[in-house]
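Build the 3D complex.
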Amino acid sequence: MKTNHTTTVNLAVNLAFKELKHGWQHFTVFLACLVLGVTMMAVVNTLGTVVKNSLTNEAQSLLGGDMEIRIKGMQASAEQERYFTQYGEVSYVATLRSMLHFKANNTLVEIKAVDEYYPLIGTLTFRQTLPKNLTAEAVFADNGIAIDPQLLSQLSMKLGDEVIIGNARYRIRATIGREPDQAVQVFTFGPRVMMSQASLVQSGLVSTFSLVEHRYRVRTPDKVVVDDKYEEQVELELKAKFPNTSWRVGTGTDGNQSLEQFLDQLIAFMNLSGLATFLIAGIGIGSSVRTYLEKKSTTIAVLKVQGAARRTVLSIYSVVVGMLALIGGIIGISLAAMVTVALMPLLATVLPSIVGETGLYGPASALALWYGVLITYLFSVPALLSAVDIKPALLFRSKTAVFELSSTKTSHLIILLLLMLLFATLLYNANDRGLIVGALGVICVAFILFGLCTYCIKQLTRAIKVKTPWLQLALSNVHRPGATTGTVVFAIGTSLTVLIALTLTEANFQARIQDIATARAPSLFIIDIQPHQKSAIQQLLREFADPDQITLSPMVRGRITHLAGRPVAEVAVDEEIQWAVRGDRGISYSAVAPDNADIIAGQWWSADYKGEPLLSVDQRFIDGMDVNIGDTITVKILGEAITAKVVNARKIDYSSFQLNFAMILSPGDIEEFPHTSLATIYLEQAANQEAKLASRIAKEFPGVTAIRTREVIALIKTIMNNIATALRLTVGISLLAGLLVLTSALSATIKQRMYDIAILKVLGASRGDILKSCSAEWLLLGLITSVVAAVMGTLGAMLIDARLGAQEFAFMPQISLGTIAICLIVIWTIGYIGNRALFNFRPASLLRNE
Amino acid sequence: MRNNEAIISLKNIALSLSGPNKKLTHILHDISLQVQQGSATSIVGASGSGKTSLMMLMAGVEKPTKGEIIVAGQDITHFNEDQLALFRRENIGIVFQNFHLIPTMTACENVKIALELAGFDNCQSRAIESLESVGLAHRLHHYPDQLSGGEQQRVALARAFTTAPKILLADEPTGNLDSENGQQVTELLFKLKATHNTTLVLITHDRHLASLTSRQLVIHDGTLNENESHHNG
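Done.
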């Protein structure tokens, strides 16, 4: 007769099975919380991995080659093109925006002109061609074009129709199926139109300084390994051979760097949201385990009386919890597999290059399962250790003993160990470890703040003494031993804080965009105005608005080479202003300061100034490039260096949608450079006039592109709405977790309440008194917590807003008040449903058993 | 251990428990008691007199404030919880007024768990045997809520005796039963006690039940007195 470790484990497993068989209904909230958390983590990690794998696997295809050589605003010369061939097979692609005209309609499109070698990697497919089964060569021959299928319906066109782009007519021969090098485009100005290089030339849209991206894709020989080092070497060779051209060389991965960064951040954010949801759900898990073990107190005491040691009891219930975690985890990852399969078509519309290899993705599922087990135990430890401490004396004495959560050194140590494991897992799997540390910091602050909030609520309700019995019972229930006040506060508090912060941020952003759209942004942007069209365009614009409503600025492209006499490479330029020294930038010139110029340092030159070149710069040049008023900046324009003295700095708000240039030169030699112009115009009765003017520009100046600000702003609003919807979905899941926890917490103390209420009923309390008491308790908790959450959420939104560079913040109290009101309704409803048994039960049944 | 040797020995036991305001309530005062191996002892007393507390001390589920408790040759006064669990597993069986069967287990499983915890082999057949001995062979796979009060208490008896403990502590074993079931349980209790030569200590209000024991003790306000008129040796 002996008990060994194996016996204990066998016993634990056997008992655990029995407990699960008979007690699964106790674990509804537990499983719901766990499934929610695991599903979310598995979905986020599976989709994240699939997207990243697709990008890595298809990096070459997305780039259209092994390496890309880019020149902005300028096509490579024949000599340069010949030079590229030493690196491998070359394909030339030009992209630009222009207007497409069909009958009386016109719309902005994104043009992609390709050569006969396109695509070097992957295959261009067409959805439909006319006639059927045309090759790419046949589609693009004789000014044939292939277009985005959406464009057909948008302008009510059909295959075979003729459209005008720039100065030429084109025949629609195909709709595009798949562009092998189409990466993610979060923001596009219009649908895709593909044509040959020869056809693009026909349009007359490409000239010096036209806003055209010239890309030369290179497929290197197999033996060449294209990596960062190779890319650097090629760039250096190009710079040495053609020093007057601004080169940028990218590899497959580099070409998608910003996309990868964006996705990394998105995945990190979703992971953190998942983790936050999981932590909220963890409270529900802990609360369920506590409720379950409290109900099992007698059984545990019986086991102890029968001779079960603490270790045996701990083993039994740890196995129960572990098995539940596994069951919930497996349900969660199975659900995640279904969700990811369902989400694939949706994802494919945003990321066309994604390959559908979703489902039960091993590593992501295993990770989600691991998180599930870890978080389950993290939140169950105090209850499990309390169960171990249940005294067999319970069988002889009070049946209403309070199940106090364990707060011993052992429980603290185990929790600390589990937290370290969780932290290590997060760090191991994170790309941005700083973000994880920061997020965990925020979570810790939230725990502390809501812990403090709980403490204050308990102290407050303990201090208040009222003579109304039902109200006194309500106050007592908030601070009584075993009350779930902390769980309720945390569940509502965290979810509401995030919800209010997100809603206020989005509302502020939308309001600001609306403000810009209605008050400050010009009605039309007109780009690619050639020098010979300047006066005619000006004349046309004046037909629609007064001269003071029109801005026309010349633009050349140049690259900063020296700052205060030092080569750019030797200057430590701030990250924030790096864009200004990376490649070519638009530079304007003007005799007078622009109307919107906010000069914060120095003076503008006189209108009749003639002399050495002077320069007006964005004030961030002063702060971020170590350049002062009086220093010089050298820019290289079409191979010629111009050194200009910085005489003033302007504060520029790029989000105003007004015409702004980071660098404006004084007139002089620069006027002799070939250049294009940009114009903006403010129109009254905007909608009507805009269409009319856009139509006139399209008709009279086919190569000039007019962009309607209203449409751009609508596009931005749509994108922001989509992002906000995705965020709301994430927060919605967190809220759902919060509601589950709330449901569990509000019904956890029903047994204790029943006893109190039985006595009160015997003493003459009516059903109404009981309902009033419970309502007062829930509403008090809900009100205090949601007000704290509203304050914290508003502070959070203000911080985010400030971080996004916003000047002023609108509090929009209606959002916070509305959220608080909804919270109160929800908390009362959940409380009522969860505790409805309290209002109808007969006290005799309970008291007789006691 | 021979039948005339003391299997339970309480020496100058006192028990005080702290109340809600940390104020001590004195439950038992300087109690000394010796219970002989194989004997049957009943403890009677009014509600709140301390009889349950006295049984809890013997079972090792409560610690005395003062004094020494020696049970089955072991001084359990300073045992920790796990030592006490092991001690109970090997020496004590308990029957409660409220039966305290595990509701998620069948009658057979309720008995088997005691054997499993004590590390017995062939637990299933032993459990069945024990249930047969209390006349519940036909109720092996019934859950507690499918059994009558009398049947539940018989399962509890089977569970308590199945590991052949040296001592059986019974807290109002017939308190929740009607007279017919109470009679059946009483007969079984004494039959099993005799079969296993178990030392029986029972707490009861039932004077008839108390009269069946060889020794009766009366507890009043935490003080124990021998009821000499019923002391049959």
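The two ends of chain A are 39 Å apart (CA to CA).
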